[in-house]
Amino acid sequence: MEAVEIFLTLLGFLMVSLIAVYVLFPRTLYGFLRNSLRRKGKLTAKSIKVGDMIWPYLEGGPSDAEPLVLLHGFGGDKDNWAMYAPEIVGKYRLIAPDLPGFGENVRDLDRDYDMATQAARVRDFLDAMGIEKCHIGGNSMGGFVSLRFALDYPERLLSMTLFNNAGVVGANESELQKEAQAGKNPLEIHSPDDVKRMLAFVAHKPMKVLGQFRKIFYEDFAVHRELLDKIFWTLVEDGTVKPLNDQLDQVKAPTLIIWGRHDQLIDVSCVNVLENGIPNAESVVFEDVGHVPMIENPKGTAKRHLEFLAKY
Question: What is the pLDDT of residue 139?
Answer without folding.
Answer: 98
